[in-house]
Amino acid sequence: MTATVTVAAALTLSACGSGNSDGSSDGKGPGADTGARKSASPSAVESAVTDRPEIELPSDLSYTFEWPKSGDKERDAVLSDGAQSVKAVDLAIAHQDALDKPYLFYYEGEAAAGTEQFIQRYVDNKARTTGAYRFYDPKVNVRGDGTASFSYCEDQGKAFVMYLKGKRIKKTEVTADSYVAYQTSLKKNDKGVWVIHDITSQRGSAACQP
């Protein structure tokens, strides 16, 4: 199931997918409180690209990336750009802008089209995500032709939908569907950024269960 298809299920569940998760169910919206918490300082890998968009997120959103560095420059760059791409989508939802420039810095082609639909779902429902996200079990394969594959798991157990009117939070219990597996295809662009061209997801994936 591609991102373009899976985003259609957005908002049907309670936990949210920070990227283009299949059933990520939190409607993200502009932010009841777009008041900002700056993302962590760019790493040495990130600093190589000087025109990266600044990503400032609502203070009630937090992320844990259990993606240890390997010492391999390109592999670590994929991990770094992957983390920024996740945050950039949440920023677009907080801005209530399905064409927000920061996420388009990291997504192209079908992945960008699917992500736009995913964000628009949150905008239409006047909602956004809140809570804590955990990402783990990364697997990166960098090829010699400037492309890469990157898979990882997401724990949405402590992430929820916040409807902007009244800042009402839809709390849900943790179930097997709180864990989502992602598979992405990336290509290094002329700026040196690993851009996502295709993304698929599987909610309730057995491989991501605790």
What would your notes on this structure say?
The structure is a single chain. With 210 residues, the chain is an alpha+beta fold. It has helices spanning 3-6, 44-47, 73-95, 101-104, 109-124, and strands at residues 36-38, 56-58, 61-65, 127-142, 147-163, 168-170, 179-188, 194-203. The strands form two sheets. Strands 3, 4, 5, 6, 7 and 8 form a six-stranded mixed β-sheet that branches. α3 packs parallel to α5 (109-124).
Short description:
The chain is α+β, with helices and mostly antiparallel strands. The chain has helices spanning 3-6, 44-47, 73-95, 101-104, 109-124; strands at residues 36-38, 56-58, 61-65, 127-142, 147-163, 168-170, 179-188, 194-203.
Form type: globular
The total strand number stands at 8
Mean pLDDT across residues: 82
Radius of gyration, in Å, reads 16 Å
SS element count, helices: 5
Low-pLDDT windows of residues: 1-47
Classify the helix fraction into a percent range: 10-25%
- Quaternary structure: single chain
Helix and strand element order: HEHEEHHHEEEEE
Q: For the report, how would you describe the main beta sheet?
A: 6 strands, mixed
How would you classify the helix and strand content by structural class?
Answer: alpha+beta
> What fraction strand?
25-35%
Span between termini: 23 Å
